Amino acid sequence: MDGVKASLVFVGMLVVGLLVSVTSGLSPPTIVSNEEEFVLQPNSVFNISCTGKRNVVWTEPLPKNTFVYPGYYTATLFIYNATVENTGYYMCTYQTQEGDLEDEPEEDNEAGIYVFVPDALAPFVPETPENLVVPMETDGVPISCRVSDPNSHVTLRSVPSGEDMSAFYDHKMGFFGSLSPGQYQCETSVNGHSIRSVIYTVETEVPAEMDNFDVEVKASEETVRAGQSFNITCVAPIGLDFQQQWLHPKKQAMGAVQIKDTSLDGVIYTLSIPKATSQDSGSYECSVTHIISGEVRVSSVAVTVFEENSFVAVDHSGIQTSEFVSLLEETEYTILINAYPNPKVSWLKDGKAMPQTYYIFTKTSHLEGNRYQSILTLRQPLVKDNGNYTITAISGSRTAHFSFTLKVKAPTAMMFPTILGPCAAATGGGDGGAPPHSFHLDLSGRG
């Protein structure tokens, strides 16, 4: 019996294998007609059947004025009151069955016909919006202007020049050829009158990473003494699709040298002024255009050239004339200084020299070239630190200063819940216990 069982199992597997082989090797469906193209008159009725080795269907979507009548391994397509919108392909394929791996029908398992419905009032088939903008491809560009009459002669023209373009034309597909970015329109003739299609736009697809790019501009010195040299650098993205341009008044950078270098971070454009004059003062802009998308980025920097032997300027950007800080919250105030020669920097509080302590101190350092910075640090600001703070920078015969008022926010009960909470809870003893200790919390000074 074991031998019989084994034989039956083998035979069963063989039968299943044969069934799978036959199913996967189905011949394509058959259109019940010797024709592949049909020319229908407007408002006419048309029907055609498709058969196969199993159930077949007409591929959707189908026009609204169509109907499919299914049968045993057959499906009949009906078109009622044909219009120009019925012009197109109609494909018949096998119905998807449970267990099929392919969601899309293979070309070998489908059959099709093409229907024309000539209409003198609509020589071009109405176009779908997604076909009006066409991405440019290196191997060719499709312009899908299809005609309703297979005998129409069609010309492709450039807009607005009207130039006749050379491209292959198929009445069922439209034009296909090597086209440059721009706008195009199809043209045909009906009863001696020229009729034009909608306008198609060919665009070069812009990579997503090119939709957004940055341009960075820096000056080697923002404050320069006459006779000194300085450079303006602009960092732009790498690529042939980017075009850079310096923008500044003609009087500026008249003797400048332009340099272009490429690094891993981008393309570095340098405007080098070997000997600055007062006319070189002003704003320098770097404009970078992405040629394909038309996106433009502009960044700028300002440079001041002093004729005198000394100069000094302070930059307090971000610091207001009145500043508020939280109690005990460490805070820093940074002042940038442009000066030549080296500046002498001092800080005053309420008009008096400010002592340097662990809790409050200043530090001045040289950054590069004529740039310096001075930082005022308050480690644990208290109410006693309220006052007017003034920074003074002296360079040669030049002086610059900036003042601001500092106010430390007064403490609240919410700031010290662990200290004030127990005190509030320890009220007088109705139970005979010891009365609570009273104390005073002084945050006005460090003692």
Automatic annotation (TrEMBL):
| Pfam families recorded | I-set, Ig_3
In the UniProt record, the signal sequence range is 1-25
Which stretches make up the Ig-like domain? 207-304
Q: Which UniProt keywords apply?
A: Immunoglobulin domain, Signal
| PANTHER family hit by this protein | PLATELET-DERIVED GROWTH FACTOR RECEPTOR LIKE, PROTEIN KINASE DOMAIN-CONTAINING PROTEIN
**How does this chain assemble?**
Forms a complex composed of PDGFRL, TNK2 and GRB2.
| Name of the protein | Platelet-derived growth factor receptor-like protein
